[in-house]
Specification:
By secondary structure, the protein is of the alpha+beta class. The chain is about 35% helix and about 20% strand. The chain has helices at about 1-15, 35-45, 70-85, 95-110, 115-140, 150-155, 160-165, 175-185, 195-215, 255-270, 275-280, 305; strands at about 235, 240-255, 285-295, 300, 320-325, 340-355, 365-375, 395-400, 405-410.
């Protein structure tokens, strides 16, 4: 953690702002103009408005509040914000490409497992990154030797350390720092603080021993489990992985526009004409404000409910959802070939409707549908887990099954 976040990331930012140990750029021109860096700082701070708290706390302004950055802030900024806000901000593209090599290395080290081939590839990429680092920042001049720090040299041993000690996520200091947060409130005595710490540690160890020996993990659970439903949450058997939360508004009438969208969705479900679909749709529906994905999944808020808390919360209405599309939809004589396509968009509304039995639908019992009204972003099916995904246009709204929503995601405006 400290190698990447508390050392090397800080050094790179010091280079880009022209504040690294009093050194100038030499023969290079990697320093970002102050006005541009101020804009990057503002974009970093404003990004938190549309990044859900699921991803962490608000990221401070890196231009004016870098002194309060924690390792968690450096990690989030480097992994998720920097690839966007630094794009086309350098005088030469090679500096951005060099940073993205470091970004790729950092993402690789977050894996939960590694093969020998992956470790070999990681080692080669680190060597390539360090060689380019020396060319850009060291420039092979004795008076710039201070840029070749021990932290830079330690990068060369990452692959070997992983092979010896296992993935970094199993032995980094985040765990110890979180534990220290539990111990700190125990210091009640200014005269004997270490006695207070020791007693706190003893009581926690005793509590854990009782849980383990008598298998009382659930009975002595101090924090509420996300697996349990609260009194205000609702889950239906047709949608076991979608836990609905208030606000709830029943008896809302359909507008013609919304009825047409729902009808278009039902035509694909029942393989019927759109005129038939319009007739079977009830006059009213129930609207829900939030949904939580079961088994520890994300909590997502519809856009209209999000706007009620816009002045003090982080937007949790931007979602990732998956749909199946026929690859041969425009080929009349080809067999259907469904492929999974990833979409991103804003969750505008959650609708619960019950379709009564109808001979046209070949249904004998009422059927419940929980649907999502989503404003689709034009991302060309790219996967943000693999590529940098951007969009400039938001397409028309569409109705999808609520179960198609995979997770809440973050987005922000830059450039």
């Amino acid at each position: 953690m400290h190698l990447f976040l508390e050392n090397h990331c800080k050094s790179l930012v010091s280079f880009w702002t022209g504040k690294y140990k009093g050194l100038d750029e030499g023969k290079e021109c990697y320093v970002i103009a102050p006005a541009v860096w101020d804009a990057i700082g503002c974009e970093t701070a404003e990004a938190s408005n549309t990044i859900p708290s699921t991803f962490g706390r608000r990221t401070p302004n890196i231009a004016t509040e870098q002194h309060i950055f924690t390792a968690e802030d450096w990690s989030f900024w480097t992994l998720f914000i920097a690839p966007y806000v630094l794009d086309r901000r350098f005088f030469r593209p090679k500096y951005y490409k060099h940073f993205m090599k470091f970004h790729s290395i950092m993402k690789t080290t977050l894996q939960f497992s590694f093969t020998d081939a992956e470790l070999g590839s990681l080692h080669e990429r680190v060597i390539d990154y360090i060689q380019e680092y020396e060319s850009i920042y060291y420039q092979f001049k004795p008076d710039r030797l201070s840029v070749c720090t021990l932290a830079v040299h330690a990068l060369l041993h990452i692959a070997d350390d992983i092979k010896t000690n296992g993935p970094p996520c199993y032995n980094w200091t985040f765990v110890m720092e979180r534990w220290c947060q539990h111990l700190l409130p125990a210091v009640k005595s200014h005269k004997r603080p270490f006695v207070s710490l020791a007693m706190r540690q003893y009581h926690l160890a005793l509590f854990n021993e009782i849980q383990t020996r008598y298998e009382l993990f659930e009975a002595l659970q101090l924090t509420p489990s996300k697996k349990e439903l609260s009194h205000y949450e609702v889950v239906y058997k047709e949608y076991p992985h979608s836990i609905l939360q208030p606000p709830r508004r029943g008896g809302k009438p359909f507008t013609d526009w919304l009825r047409n969208l729902v009808a278009a969705y039902l035509t694909t479900v029942f393989n019927i004409r759109i005129s038939t679909a319009k007739r079977v749709i009830p006059e009213t529906f129930t609207a829900w404000g939030k949904v939580r994905i079961a088994n520890g999944g994300d909590c997502i808020r519809v856009k209209s409910a999000q706007d009620l808390y816009a002045d003090r919360s982080q937007d949790a209405s931007f979602v990732c959802y998956e749909v199946l599309a026929d690859r041969n939809a425009f080929s009349k004589f080809s067999a259907t070939d469904f492929v999974r396509i990833i979409h991103y968009g804003t969750l505008e509304m959650i609708l619960e409707i019950i379709i009564p039995p109808n001979p046209s639908l070949r249904t004998m019992e009422p059927r419940r549908f929980i649907l999502a009204l989503v404003s689709d972003c034009k991302t060309d099916g790219k996967d943000a887990a693999k590529d940098i995904v951007t969009f400039t246009k938001i397409g028309p709204c569409a109705i999808v099954d609520l179960a198609a929503i995979c997770a809440v995601v973050g987005c922000f405006k830059y450039g």
